[in-house]
Backbone:
């Protein structure tokens, strides 16, 4: 089975622009979670999607949004980019059952976003 | 205070040494994850546990729910074990979270010298 794939792997943008990142989960996985990793804050949960619905959201401003398609692929969008948005953005997929059932998450390689 | 605390932040060992990384959490959890991140960013899930102990090769993870503490042990460490090890707590429903809203520790940078 192919693993989680993320595109693009690297991205350079300037302040004020917007960006869209893509994540393709492992075949059969219906849940996709997104995380931001920065040197200062470490890993932080952004949001989680299941069956095209956002099921959980972290403490990020509304500039961060996402969506999930019927084939479980997910995109996240960041509008009006700020310097502080420079980070590694990781997605993870899992065989979701209930929202309160613990399952292993499989991570993609990440997209490294640099905002100049 | 972070909800998930890891120690030590940095750890240097000689090949063959026994390694222990600790993780303490303050919220009720449904599961505790241990992750490994190599330079370049890729993250691999090592363990997910909610009680007791799990073993995979030279890696052992334990959790004490009452003490809200987990440890990751590496036996006979090797330079290829050099990586950042991160623990992450999946809050329980009673703690107001869901399995997917992970809270992460800051990570432990392990360097194993030959």
Residues:
């Amino acid at each position: 089975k192919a693993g989680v794939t993320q595109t693009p792997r690297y991205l350079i943008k300037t302040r004020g622009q917007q960006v869209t990142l893509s994540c393709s989960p492992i075949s059969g996985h219906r849940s996709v979670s997104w995380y931001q990793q920065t040197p200062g804050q470490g890993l932080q949960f952004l949001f989680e999607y299941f069956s095209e619905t956002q099921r959980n959201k972290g403490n990020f401003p509304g500039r961060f949004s996402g969506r999930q398609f019927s084939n479980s692929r997910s995109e996240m969008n960041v509008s009006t980019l700020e310097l502080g948005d420079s980070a590694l953005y990781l997605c993870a997929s899992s065989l979701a059952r209930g929202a309160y059932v613990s399952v292993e998450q499989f991570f993609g390689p990440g997209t490294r976003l640099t905002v100049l | 205070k972070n909800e998930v605390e890891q120690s030590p932040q940095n750890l240097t060992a000689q090949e063959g040494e026994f390694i222990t990384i600790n993780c303490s959490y303050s919220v009720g959890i449904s599961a505790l994850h241990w992750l490994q991140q190599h330079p370049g960013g890729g993250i691999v899930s090592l363990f997910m546990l909610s009680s007791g102990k799990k073993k995979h090769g030279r890696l052992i993870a334990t959790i004490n729910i009452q003490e809200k503490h987990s440890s990751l042990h590496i036996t006979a460490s090797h330079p290829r074990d050099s990586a950042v090890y991160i623990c992450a707590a999946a809050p329980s429903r009673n703690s107001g979270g869901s399995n997917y809203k992970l809270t992460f520790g800051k990570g432990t940078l392990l360097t194993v010298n030959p």
Chain B has a mean pLDDT of 90. The interface with chain A takes residues 30-31, 33, 35, 41-45, 48, 50, 86, 88, 90, 92-93, 97-107 of chain B (CB under 8 Å).
